[in-house]
Design goal:
The complex is a heterotetramer.
Chain A (H helix, E strand, L loop, with lengths): L1 H6 L31 H22 L3 H21 L3 H26 L12 H23 L11 H6 L3 H10 L2 H22 L4
Chain C lengths: L1 H15 L3 H26 L3 H31 L4 H4 L5
Helix pairs in contact in C: 1-2, 2-3
Chain D lengths: L7 H4 L3 H18 L8 H21 L5 E3 L4 E3 L1 H27 L5 H19 L3 H19 L6 H32 L4 H13 L10 H18 L8 H8 L2 H26 L6 H22 L5 H23 L23 H30 L19 H4 L1 H15 L5 H15 L3 H27 L13 H19 L2 H8 L8
Antiparallel strand pairs in D: 1-2
The chains are: A mainly alpha, B mainly alpha, C mainly alpha, D mainly alpha.
Chain lengths: 206, 595, 92, 525
């Protein structure tokens, strides 16, 4: 559970990339004083709320371009959360690939097609209502499931060597190119297929 | 048994198919050649069937002329054929009917001749196969395979409403047989031990026998809490359901009241050949199925529902007869008379006494001959006039004397006038029914059916043949030509011979009858009909008749292993003291029963 | 929980929005929710598997985006619209 | 850092995929050198050759011992090898069909076959993935290739519509599955299926202070999402809505590939995932879930197909129904010997579950997949042979009337189509019948009597609409001015091959059942 993992732990730390790598924040909560918000907790909440709102924006905004910009914002906030989760490599990737590449592609397509959406953004029908209800039910179930999870003590983080390498590019690379070789090759195949497929489909004539 | 004998049935089954393959190559427009070739094929098959019958009559064992070949050993499916008395008789009937069917539609079918004859030949193979199968799944395959050519026969060459009738026929039969398939799979798991599951008839029967006895004993004791072996417990629980599924499949085929409704349509719309085959052979698959599978495999359940079966049969007899009285369409009338006649067969089976069962079997043959002949003869005037209503005919006796004579003789057979074959069958069935533990009213009502039967058939004869010629079109009708006479005469001969000298046929049938009754009643003799599974591998993997025997060909990448499936089957089934794979199940049957 | 919310928002979007492009964006949201979950649990356990998974998911999302947008262009070329309602022409 | 060591034994299972990929690349490169007017029949044949080679390797692999390879990300077992074989058969036949189809539309390009082979490679890899992320990536390989193939004929509006729907729902399903995987990862800390099973059991047993099972719900939610994702992929009711539109919109050879290969691969992956993880949770739950899915899918699929006049759509619904029969098999895997009353959704073993039950089910599923592949591709092949480009915009290109009088116009095609229809209906002597016997045999063995009976009745309804095609072919006169369809040897070759296969495997299933019998089928730890 994201909130617990990040927010309410006694010795939570932010593990920043680059020069700030070893910037450790002090434990912020003591057993006998009422809990206070730590800086990273505050940051988390800011990002979380922003993420949810911008994600909602994707869904409810009428103009596709506004939706897309909202999605970009979501990705940025998510990247922030990833950093808080000690996953700076992935956070960087997120910014590079999602915000940098995928969203540009999206915007490009929207501009290219000069889509001007008329009519209501959401049109409800029976099946869609059903879908919305199913979604709500799933949300409730998931929230319940996450609520039940125990808070982790992050005991592994007491091992500084592990903590130091956690989430670093080197570590990610080492694992990916040694252990995850087969899926990696599969991804390369996937990208090849995607290139061919995209070119083939987007050509105006065969 | 010579090695010829062991392969004879393969030839009987697959000869039509081989000819069909040849026919497939013939050019489409050579109609004469196509007909001739089919006729020859059927003659050959008839000869083979007669030969098989003759060879059968010599042997002592229950199932003779057996042939066994491994087919799909992984699931315990084997190609196992063999015939007992009743199957032999029906094979004979089917064989003899084959060429006559071809002759009957010699001029009737002018359209898509090649396809028509292909369908008939394939149908012949399927019917022979179903009659000879000694493997449950093999039987099922042939049983289903019959549907397709028959469906096409009705649907392509039938009359106006043919598509609906064909679809009805197909779906009715299919629903029943699919349920049977589930039950069949259930039986397969219950009866044969894990790891050695087999669809072989004998294996399944032997596996169920002990359980059936326990169930019967338990029912007799009236006890709810008898300790049962696993097989018996399963039988106790599912036996009635499985019997129900088998019974439903076969009852649809027979057809028994109230699942008979497809039959009048199918008969009415089918071409002559279709009606003949349908009446003469295919309906017998239903009764044969009861005889061979439904009742012997689930004797306890069969006894439980004996009265219900008999009641349905009697309702069929009376209802069919009453419906006949109300019909204006001649083909429909004959169709309903089939419902009535097959009611006797079912009654005979349900009575479970030797006389009744013998009569039932005999009645199956009779019905094949007489109703087949009726459809044939009616087909002849239908070909001339293309109308089917009673009111369209009248006074034909003056125009077509030969035809009338033939028709009347066949009618006598159908209404069971003494001296014809019909008499013997119905008499035996009624006798057996009165002797059985069925209540008296069953027999009384069934006797009533005889009277009604006479009434409707004779009324029809009167309306069609006697009195003044009411229609102008009928005055110019020419009488039967040589081909038509040649087609009909064998039927007449059969009617008279079977009526006056039934003993040879009855002797053959009775061998099976006694076993059937013993199995159905689990009586004192019931330990006797323990079947032996034929598991000996075919003596030499000699070349099979072209495309005939689906023997398992091992792939090239097959590991050389000593066919575990075969060993599996061999071990438990062959008793150590049996020098031959096929044990005679009983000493040669001596004639007993009514005659 | 945030991930769940994000996921469900995405799912909701897929189910109710009419604009094909927006629907597509919502699917991206769902993928990101999965990413977030992987990363959160990864931190929870100190296990890098979640990071690698997220890495792969981003790659997959990129591939999907390429082909998906190509398809959207194709649809727009043949129909002149990306409205889902108007794309439903086949009868059931 | 430890550098992994691989031996040749690690690579055998991926060699078929390698062959397919290599052939795809060759096709794409060779396309560059061709002029617009050049004959491209060789491309189809090259694809077929690649499929044959890959299939041969797969056949060899079947005899190998089941084991985990490539550091546990993939497995090598007869189950996946047989799937590879099925996929190769399906892709080869679909490629043959494609030649005529594309030439007719002047749209034959190397990329089409390349994408087909890529999709096939994705399918084979999907079958052997033993880890969630790998599985997901491979699923995407096959999906992305199929999306592109579906949109191949972009001039018409239908293909792009079909492709779009397929894409949206495919991506949605993938996202669902992925999120489910993320939840399961959260509960266990691993994405490897084999490790996950053990850890799941531990995670389920964990208790918190109040005595509850904190991770239980998380795990079940994960299962639910993964299951829903798969249900979309195999088009199980109620996740089937996309199927008819997509099947209708896609180019027919691609539809054939989808109905056969994609579905087969998805089923194999489904079985692998749930067989690895299922035992960790209460078997009752997956059993109920799959039983309900099977029941709905069998019944609804058949019922929806009944009123269809559009044969291509009818086949789409029929593919849903067939997925239902396969789900029956999957449900049988989780059948538990409970002494329940005989009901529709209960399992009451007849005599007690025999030890060989599971391997029986695997055999049933695999044989059914093969049989369905051959038959469905044949049926779609007949449509390929009959359809004309001009009609596609009119929307009646696949109407039943197209089949009227085919029996006299093209007796060979009509005969082949009859064989396919009978096989789909499960009538002997066709491969569909044997498949049905094997599958229902397993189901009955598992005690799924009620479901089997429902399935049988549903399939009887199925025979009705299959036979209607036969009725039109043989019992209706050809419409006036019916054009004689063009003959193309590649299409006809595919038809002959599938028809012969349908009958031959129906009469002599021995070699295949022997092949399936050989091993313990699925890799277990």
């Amino acid at each position: 559970m994201v909130v617990d993992v990040v927010g309410f732990l006694p010795h939570a730390t932010i593990h920043l990339p680059g020069p700030f790598r070893y910037l450790w924040l002090q434990p912020i909560c003591c057993a006998n004083s009422p809990p206070r918000m730590s800086p990273e907790q505050i940051l988390f909440w800011v990002f979380a709320v922003a993420t949810v709102f911008s994600a909602l924006g994707v869904v409810v905004l009428k103009n596709p371009i506004a939706s897309a910009m909202s999605l970009v914002a979501t990705f940025f906030f998510l990247a922030g959360i990833y950093v808080l989760l000690w996953a700076h490599t992935v956070a960087a990737l997120q910014v590079l690939v999602y915000a940098g590449a995928i969203m540009v592609l999206f915007l490009f397509v929207i501009m290219l097609l000069s889509i001007n959406d008329v009519g209501p953004a959401v049109q409800l029908s029976f099946s869609r209502l059903l879908g919305a209800v199913a979604t709500a039910a799933l949300l409730a179930a998931l929230v319940l499931a996450f609520r039940k999870l125990p808070t982790s003590d992050l005991a592994w983080a007491n091992d500084p060597a592990r903590l130091a390498s956690f989430g670093s590019i080197k570590e990610v690379g080492a694992i990916m190119y040694t252990q995850w070789l087969f899926p990696f090759e599969a991804v390369s195949l996937l990208l090849l297929v995607a290139i061919v497929g995209a070119v083939v489909v987007a050509k105006s004539r065969i | 048994m010579s090695s010829y004998d062991s392969r004879l049935l393969n030839f009987v089954i697959f000869a039509p198919l081989v000819f069909a393959a040849v026919l497939f190559i013939l050019p489409k427009n050579e109609k004469g050649q196509i007909r001739a070739l089919t006729f020859i094929a059927m003659l050959v098959d008839a000869a083979l069937a007669i030969w098989a019958y003759v060879r059968f009559a010599e042997g002592p064992a229950e199932f003779r002329l057996e042939y066994w070949a491994s087919w799909v050993p992984e699931i315990g499916l084997s190609y196992h054929v063999g015939i007992d008395g009743i199957a032999a008789s029906l094979v004979l009937l089917t064989g003899i009917l084959g060429p006559l069917v071809v002759l009957a539609s010699w001029t009737f079918v002018q359209d898509k001749v090649k396809e028509f004859h292909l369908a008939i030949l394939i149908l012949q193979t399927a019917m022979m196969g179903a009659l000879c199968s000694l493997d449950l799944l093999l039987f099922y395959i042939f049983f289903e395979a019959m549907l397709i050519p028959m469906y096409l026969l009705i649907g392509v060459w039938g009359s106006e409403e043919r598509q609906m009738a064909a679809m009805k026929f197909f779906l009715y039969t299919l629903v029943g047989s699919l349920l049977m398939l589930v039950a069949l799979l259930g039986v397969y798991f219950i009866a044969t031990p894990a790891g050695q599951h087999s669809f072989d008839y004998a294996a399944v029967y032997n596996g169920l026998l002990g359980g059936s006895r326990e169930v019967a004993a338990c029912v007799k004791a009236g006890g709810e809490n008898c300790s049962l072996s696993p097989v018996a417990a399963a039988l106790m629980r599912y036996g009635p359901w499985m019997f129900g599924a088998f019974a439903l499949a076969f009852a649809i085929k027979v057809p028994m009241w109230p699942v008979h409704t497809w039959l009048p349509d199918a008969h009415t719309q089918a071409p002559v050949a279709g009606s003949m085959i349908l009446a003469a052979v295919m309906l017998k698959m239903g009764t044969f199925g009861f005889w061979r599978f439904a009742v012997p495999l689930f004797p306890a359940a069969a006894q439980k529902y004996q009265l219900a079966l008999a009641t349905l049969a009697v309702i069929g007899i009376v209802y069919g007869a009453l419906m006949c009285l109300a019909q204006r369409d001649i083909k429909r009338l004959i169709a309903y008379s089939s419902v009535s006649h097959l009611g006797y067969c079912m009654l005979g089976l349900a009575a479970m006494t030797p006389e009744a069962a013998t009569g039932s079997a005999y009645q199956m043959l009779n019905h094949g001959v007489s109703t087949g002949a009726l459809f044939l003869l009616f087909g002849m005037i239908y070909e001339r006039r293309h109308v089917r209503l009673l009111s369209d005919y009248g006074g034909l006796a003056k125009v077509m004397p030969i035809f009338t004579a033939f028709f009347v003789i066949v009618t006598f057979s159908s209404v069971a006038v003494p001296g014809t074959n019909g008499f013997i069958g119905e008499f035996l069935v009624l006798l057996g029914t009165f002797n059985s533990k069925l209540p008296l009213w069953v027999g009384v009502l069934a006797s009533l059916g005889v009277v009604l039967g006479a009434a409707y058939m004779l009324l029809m004869v009167q309306k069609v043949f006697f009195g003044p010629v009411t229609r102008k079109e009928n005055q110019q009708l020419h009488d039967l030509n040589l081909r038509e006479i040649a087609t009909t005469v064998p039927f007449l001969i059969l009617i008279v011979v079977m009526g006056l000298r039934p003993q040879p046929l009855l002797t053959v049938i009775e061998q099976s009858t006694r076993r059937y009754v013993a199995r159905a009643t689990l009586g004192p003799e019931s330990s006797e009909p323990q079947l032996q599974v034929k598991t000996r591998p075919p003596p030499t993997p000699a070349p099979a008749p072209a495309g005939a025997i689906p023997s398992l060909k091992l792939g090239e990448n097959e590991a050389p292993k000593p066919s575990p499936a075969r060993d599996r089957l061999l071990r438990p089934m062959i008793s150590p003291n049996s020098p031959r794979p096929v044990l005679m199940a009983a000493p040669p049957a001596n004639a007993q029963g009514a005659h | 929980m945030l991930a769940a919310a994000l996921f469900c928002i995405g799912m909701l979007g897929v189910l109710v929005r009419r604009n094909a492009l927006v629907v597509f964006m919502c699917i991206e949201l769902m993928l990101n929710a999965a990413n977030l979950t992987f990363l959160a649990f990864a931190r929870d356990r100190g296990d890098m598997t979640g990071h690698i998974s997220a890495f792969f998911i981003i790659a997959v999302a990129a591939a999907e985006a390429a082909v998906g947008l190509a398809i959207v262009i194709a649809v727009f070329r043949s129909r002149g619209t990306v409205n889902i309602e108007e794309i439903q022409t086949m009868k059931h | 850092m430890t550098i992994p060591e691989f031996t040749m034994a690690d690579f055998w299972p991926v060699i078929p995929a390698g062959i397919l990929t290599a052939a795809a690349i060759v096709l794409m490169i060779s396309e560059v050198f061709l002029g617009a007017a050049a004959s491209r029949t060789y491309q189809s044949l090259l694809s077929v050759l690649a499929c044959v080679l890959a299939g041969a390797v797969a056949l060899m692999n079947m005899t190998d011992t089941p084991r985990a390879v490539l550091q546990g990300y993939a497995v090598m077992d007869p189950f996946s090898s047989f799937l590879t074989l099925v996929v190769c058969v399906g892709t080869g036949l679909a490629a043959l069909l494609a030649a005529g189809f594309l030439q007719h539309r002047n749209a034959e390009r190397g990329e089409f076959y390349a994408l087909m082979l890529f999709a096939a490679a994705g399918m084979t890899l999907l079958g052997l993935s033993n880890e969630f992320i790998t599985l997901f990536v491979n699923l995407e390989v096959l999906s992305v290739a199929t999306y592109a193939l579906t949109a191949w004929l972009r001039r018409g509006s239908r293909p792009s519509e079909g492709a779009f729907k397929y894409f949206i729902l495919g991506a949605f399903a993938a996202a669902l599955m992925l999120y489910g995987a993320a939840l399961l990862y959260g509960a266990t800390g691993t994405t490897h299926l084999t490790d996950m099973a053990a850890k799941l059991r531990a995670a389920l047993a964990e208790t918190d202070a109040s005595g509850g099972h904190p991770k239980q719900m998380l795990i079940y939610a994960g299962f639910l999402l993964v299951g829903a994702g798969f249900a979309f992929k195999v088009a199980a009711v109620p996740f089937h809505m996309w199927t008819p539109d997509v099947y209708e919109g896609a180019p027919t050879p691609v539809t054939a590939l989808m109905s056969a290969g994609v579905k087969a691969a998805a089923f194999v992956a489904l079985v692998r995932v749930f067989m690895a993880l299922g035992p960790a949770v209460d078997p009752q739950l997956p059993f109920i879930a799959f039983s309900v899915l099977a029941l709905l899918t069998m019944v609804v699929g058949n019922l929806l197909a009944l009123p269809q006049r559009n044969v291509k759509r009818m086949l789409a619904y029929s593919s849903i129904a067939h997925a239902g029969y396969l789900l029956l098999g999957v449900a049988a895997l989780f059948a538990v010997g409970k002494d329940a009353k005989v009901g529709v959704l209960s399992s009451t073993p007849l005599v007690g579950i025999s030890g060989s039950m599971q391997s029986d089910v695997y055999q049933g599923i695999l044989f059914y997949l093969l049989g369905y592949t051959v038959t469905a591709i044949g049926a779609f092949g007949t449509i390929v042979a009959l359809e004309r480009r001009e009609d596609e915009t009119k929307g009646n290109a696949w109407d039943l009337d197209r089949f009227a009088g085919l029996g006299s116009r093209k007796p060979g095609w009509a005969l082949a189509m009859t064989v396919f229809m009978l096989s789909l209906g499960g009538v002997p002597p066709t491969v569909g019948f044997i498949g049905k016997v094997l599958l229902f045999r397993a189901a009955v063995d598992a005690g799924l009597l009620g479901l089997s009976i429902v399935g049988m009745l549903a399939s009887a309804a199925g025979v009705y609409y299959y036979l209607r095609v036969v009725v039109y072919m043989y019992m209706r006169p050809a419409p006036e001015g019916a054009l004689v369809p063009e003959r193309r040897w590649t299409t006809e070759l595919a038809l002959v091959a599938t028809a012969a296969g349908t009958v031959l495997f129906g009469v002599l299933p021995g070699p295949i059942t022997a092949l399936l019998q050989r091993t313990d089928m699925l890799f277990h730890r």
